[in-house]
TrEMBL record:
Protein name per Swiss-Prot or TrEMBL: OsmC family protein
UniProt source species: Gilvimarinus xylanilyticus
Length: 142
């Protein structure tokens, strides 16, 4: 896996993934940025959310759950000192579908957290306290 991050101007950077996709990162105006993109630490949270959400959806599909949507709402706390690392992160999954089995949703979230999500496991190994919960939203075709 490869990536390149190029300085554009001020506190703005252009990141390009090895697969050829780009993202703009920028800082707030009071730190030399123009607020034109996500912050680098926000990118870490987005990566964690994408990694874990991918796992949950994949596990639920493999168990033949009738899932129609899944989003993960992430809240994080950072240390007051420099470096301002993440100290706590909470992932709240909102899983929508028809006749979803709570046991399967709980298992999917747990497996993502403990076995499959590389980002989550890496951050926990670095001392970040990560918690997870979920809610199920019933949707029907009627």
């Amino acid at each position: 896996m490869q990536a390149t991050v190029k300085w554009v101007d001020g506190a703005q950077f252009l990141g390009e993934s090895g697969s050829g996709h780009s993202v703009v990162m920028d800082g707030p105006e009071d730190h030399g940025g123009r607020n034109t993109g996500v912050r680098p630490m926000e990118m870490l949270l987005l990566g964690l959310g994408g990694c874990s959400n991918f796992d949950v959806i994949s596990i639920l599909k493999k168990t033949r759950q009738n899932i129609s949507d899944c989003r993960v709402e992430i809240t994080a706390e950072r240390a007051d000192a420099v470096p301002a690392v993440f100290t706590k992160i909470h992932l709240h999954f909102v899983v929508s579908g028809e006749s979803l089995k709570e046991k399967q949703v709980a298992r999917a979230v747990e497996l993502s957290a403990t076995k499959y999500c590389s980002a989550s496991i890496m951050l926990e190994g670095a001392g970040v306290e990560i918690s997870h919960d979920y809610e199920i939203v019933e949707q029907s075709d009627v």
